[in-house]
Amino acid sequence: MLDKKPKNIFIQGAISPQKIGEDIAHHQKKTQIGAHSIFMGQVRADELLNGVVEAIEYTTHEAMALEQMHVIREAIFAKYPLTCLHITHSLGRVNVGEICLFVFASAVHRKEAIDACEEVVERIKKELPIWGKEICHNKTHQWKENRA
Amino acid sequence: MLDKKPKNIFIQGAISPQKIGEDIAHHQKKTQIGAHSIFMGQVRADELLNGVVEAIEYTTHEAMALEQMHVIREAIFAKYPLTCLHITHSLGRVNVGEICLFVFASAVHRKEAIDACEEVVERIKKELPIWGKEICHNKTHQWKENRA
Amino acid sequence: MQVRLLFFGNLTDVMPSTMLDWDWNGDGKTVNDLLNMLYSSYPKLKGKTFRVAVNQQFVAMEYGLTSGDEVALMPPFSGG
Amino acid sequence: MQVRLLFFGNLTDVMPSTMLDWDWNGDGKTVNDLLNMLYSSYPKLKGKTFRVAVNQQFVAMEYGLTSGDEVALMPPFSGG
Predict the structure, then answer these.
(1) Rounded-to-integer distance, Cα A138 and Cα C29, Å
(2) Which residues lie closer than 8 Å to A60 by C-beta, 6 or more apart?
(3) Angle B17-26/A17-26 helices, nearest 10 degrees?
(4) How far apart are the CA of B128 and the nearest CA of chain D, in angstroms?
(5) Which contacts (CB < 8 Å, 24+ apart) does range D22-27 have?
(6) pTM for the whole structure
(7) One pLDDT digit (tens) per residue for chain C, 80 residues
(8) d(CA B60, CA D74)
(9) Cα–Cα distance measured from residue A121 to residue C49, given in angstroms and rounded to the nearest whole number
(10) Is any Cβ of chain B less than 8 angstroms from the Cβ of D17?
């Protein structure tokens, strides 16, 4: 069953590709897994009205975010027969080209892993109290807005 | 536009998690990318009637597979505004717990990356002339059958 | 009575800090009453879109506050 | 006439090799004719499910073969 205590999902700064490779490697012992689905969010050099984005600074209400993430995890495990589900989200500054969100769902068959991964990504964007401040080269900023 | 010549997608043996981490890292220069969607197939220790799977040996009609993969790539790029799409499939022996298929789709926004990745996986399984021979510990084998 | 106010996202552009302890004399107030007091002191807050969470649960404008509550003002989320 | 036969997947369990050069005298034959000749020599092939690709294109049973054709017998795919 699921842990009672919400797991931490936050790390300070960007998520390194090397860590992602290591996380994948750690799943090779779980020989019942047949399919992994991964989503990664990467900070874009968007052209805003006032300049080009060079980083996003993420802030959160950590206790509320972890509690809601726990609710999402429980709902996803109840809905899909997953082997495991790992989520990491950055806080603080993440530069353009770096990874700020990593969702990793594994299952016996592909359909469950793919559907669960997508649903987790959508719910994270809609339901977790996290805010992204887009910082431009000229030090102006704009608050990120998520697409529906 | 797309290359005229079909790209190779095959490697001999398993796809290493470290290579996947490196592939992810190589995309950090592409600062227009906002979303990556990855699918990985992993060889399962399935219990068959005659024994437990310890590896799958993949064979293909390489020229036909690469030509069909080229057709799929063109259709996917025509349908989804992707930044890039990378596919690797193993040939030869891949042991239980190792990765045999890696599909990596990147786009400005998440919806395109996720949908394209899933469609590529489905089309690879249905349309590429590749066969998996499940080898058991006791040296018996069974030919893999893909789920619909 | 005193509540602890927390501000997030674009609200931090119009507030002097991300946290504010807010006191008043007398009876309990609703979230709506509290916001009206805040709007008097920080008129730029008034045009903003946000939801209110008290002690980490979203509440309606009529919710009655208790001394010691944490009141978080949260604009639309933009994680990921 | 001669064609080069290629066998894949579970067909390799019932054939002596994955490749076979197959000769016959006289006129061109259809894929169907060729399969009937093959079934006489390799009766275990008969129960198998497969499609036929000639020179890397899937063809119908009535397709007329030309000397030098590559004829691939392909059971259902199971990549990934």
Answers:
(1) 43
(2) A10, A89, A91, A128, A129, A130, A131, C79
(3) 160
(4) 7
(5) D25/D1, D26/D1
(6) 0.95
(7) 999 999 999 999 999 999 999 998 877 799 999 999 999 999 999 999 999 999 999 999 999 999 999 999 999 999 99
(8) 10
(9) 24
(10) no
CATH code that applies to domain C2-74:
3.10.20.30
- The token duo for A60 is 């959160």
Instruction: List CB contacts of D72: < 8 A, sequence separation 6 or more.
Output: B61, B64, B129, D5, D6, D7, D8, D52, D53, D54, D56
In sequence order, what DSSP letters do the residues of C35-53 get, joined into one string?
Answer: HHHHHHH-GGGTT---EEE
Does chain D reach chain C with at least 3 CB pairs under 8 Å? no
* Contacts of residue C77, Cβ cutoff 8 Å, sequence gap at least 6: A125, A126, A127, A128, A129, A130, A131, A146
The whole-angstrom separation of Cα A37 and Cα B102 is: 10
Q: Is B40 on the interface with A (CB under 8 A)?
A: yes
Contacting residues for B36 by C-beta, under 8 A, at least 6 apart: A38, A39, A40, A42, B24, B27, B104, B105, B106, B113
Q: Which two tokens stand for residue D28?
A: 């061109």
- Residue keyed to tokens 């596919």: B87
Contact with chain D for residue B9, Cβ under 8 A: no
- Tell me the pLDDT tens digit for each residue of A10-56: 999 999 999 999 999 999 999 999 999 999 999 999 999 889 999 99
C80:A101 CB<8 A: yes
